[in-house]
Each structure stands twice: as structure tokens, then as C-alpha cells.
Design a protein that fits this description.
It is built from 8 helices and 7 strands, in the order E-H-E-H-E-H-E-H-E-H-E-H-H-H-E. The chain has 263 residues and is α/β, with parallel strands linked by helices. The chain has one domain: NAD(P)-binding Rossmann-like Domain (Rossmann fold), CATH 3.40.50.
């Protein structure tokens, strides 16, 4: 994919790298950081969706954007993309590990190996790999913030979600472990755990069944991707001596991953 690497601005602003940026929470984060003047590295599998978002943001804001269209599960593609970044994009200030998904609502002993592999490889292994590729440079520069998008699902299992819940529990532990490993550095680690957010998440979970997905949000006002983006930005913009370690964000009528009140 040929791109213009020439920055719009003579001096590059802070750079945020967002995985899974083509829709939902990732796209909302891209819009929020662009509005606040950040330069963006945007990753997703869909080149068309990324290009549409890039055009939207460039028309709205004076920001520099570089697209990294690869599947986060593809280690070789990820390593190559990050190793060949133009010089002006190499000093990543903020990493938002957002790429993730749930597939199906099967009982643990009835799910498919393919769904298990996809969730584990995307939600855990890819997050760990991207972190491994980005954080050493942050440590070397003594500057950086890693923001992992976890889930309330990581706090406790719910019916039909055990594998997905397990992956998000892993995100919490990986976030905590990384924070421990970086305690002697200026780097910060944040785990943002959303509850019910109305994005394409449920459409993906139910294999494109929009009618079934819509029922997930009936009778309750869910969170939006923009709500979570505000929390992500709040954590990123806190004073350097303040580390927002973990944030659980729920809709008003949601008490846990499985308990909601519907009108």
C-alpha cells in the first residue's frame, strides 16, 4: 500500500498507535486523539475502512496519519510494518491495544476450535506481540504509555462467554504484569474495561446476525465507542506522575458483566 510519508506539520506531534482502528472503540479513539492534535498510526485488516477513516480525519483536523493495514495475528506482517516505519513515525508515545473480538455464545464444551483460536490469538497473543514490538523503544527513550482495552468480562465469566472472558482476564493480568515490569521506568500502563458498548462487537459475535445483535442493547442505554475514547484520552492526558492503572466503565443500568436492568 503506497502512502505519502511526508508529514503535514514540520514538527510531528505526539504519536498514538491504535490497533483495530477501523470501527467501534478503535475508530472513536482515532477521532478523539486526532481532535486533540495527535499524529496517528492506525491499524486494522480492512484497507478500505482505514482509508475512509483517514480521509475523514484529514478533512476535519490538521493531523498526520499513517495506515498500517495488517492482521494483528500475523506476526511477520506486524514486525515488518513496525520495523519499516518512516523515521518521523518511529517514536510512538501511546500504544492503544484495542483489537479484539468475541465469537459465538457456545457452551465451553460445545464451541469450535476455530473460534477459540481466533479469540485467543487476537485478544491475547496479538496484544502481547504488539506490546513486545513497541515497548522496548519506549523503555529506551524513557517515555510511553500502553493502554489495553480489556472488558468487564475479564472480571467474571458469564453464560456462553467463558473463552472470551478468559481472554479478557488475561488482558488484565498482562496489564498488571507489564506495569510491574516497568515500575522502574517512567512508562505507564492502563487497562480500560468497558461494559456494554454498542458497536459492531455483537454483530461480529453473532456472525453478522444484526437482528440478534440488536437485541443485546434493547431496553438499556449502552455505552458508545466515544464514551470509551473519552476515558482512554483521560488516562493518556493525565499528568506524567499519575498512572491510571485500571478503569471499569459500565452503562448506568449495568452492574456486572452479566447483570443488567432493562426497561
Amino acid at each position: 500500500m503506497q502512502q505519502d510519508y511526508t508529514p503535514k506539520n514540520k514538527t510531528m506531534s505526539k504519536i498514538v498507535f491504535i490497533t483495530g482502528a477501523s470501527s467501534g472503540i478503535g475508530a472513536a479513539c482515532a477521532r478523539k486523539f486526532a481532535k486533540e492534535g495527535y499524529s496517528l498510526l492506525l491499524n486494522a485488516r480492512s484497507v478500505d475502512k482505514l482509508q475512509t477513516l483517514k480521509t475523514e480525519l484529514e478533512n476535519a483536523y490538521n493531523t498526520d496519519i499513517l495506515l498500517l493495514p495488517f492482521d494483528v495475528r500475523d506476526r511477520e506482517a506486524a514486525a515488518k510494518a513496525l520495523a519499516t516505519l518512516p523515521e518521523q513515525y518511529q517514536s510512538i508515545d501511546i500504544l492503544v491495544n484495542n483489537a479484539g473480538l468475541a465469537l459465538g455464545m457456545d457452551k465451553e464444551y460445545e464451541g469450535t476450535e476455530e473460534n477459540y483460536d481466533t479469540m485467543i490469538d487476537t485478544n491475547i497473543t496479538a496484544l502481547l506481540m504488539i506490546t513486545r514490538l513497541v515497548v522496548p523503544s519506549m523503555v529506551k527513550r524513557g517515555k510511553g504509555h500502553i493502554i489495553n482495552i480489556g472488558s468487564v468480562a475479564g472480571d467474571a465469566a458469564y453464560p456462553g462467554g467463558s473463552v472470551y472472558c478468559a481472554t479478557k482476564a488475561a488482558v488484565k493480568v498482562l496489564s498488571d504484569g507489564l506495569r510491574i515490569d516497568l515500575v522502574d521506568t517512567p512508562l505507564r500502563v492502563t487497562n480500560v474495561k468497558p461494559g456494554l458498548v454498542e458497536t459492531n462487537f455483537s454483530v461480529t459475535r453473532f456472525a453478522g446476525d444484526k437482528e440478534r445483535a440488536d437485541k443485546v442493547y434493547q431496553g438499556i442505554k449502552p455505552l458508545t465507542g466515544e464514551d470509551i475514547a473519552e476515558v482512554v484520552y483521560f488516562a493518556a492526558s493525565a499528568p506524567e506522575h499519575v498512572q491510571i492503572a485500571e478503569v471499569l466503565v459500565l452503562a448506568t443500568h449495568q452492574a456486572s458483566g452479566s447483570l443488567l436492568y432493562r426497561n
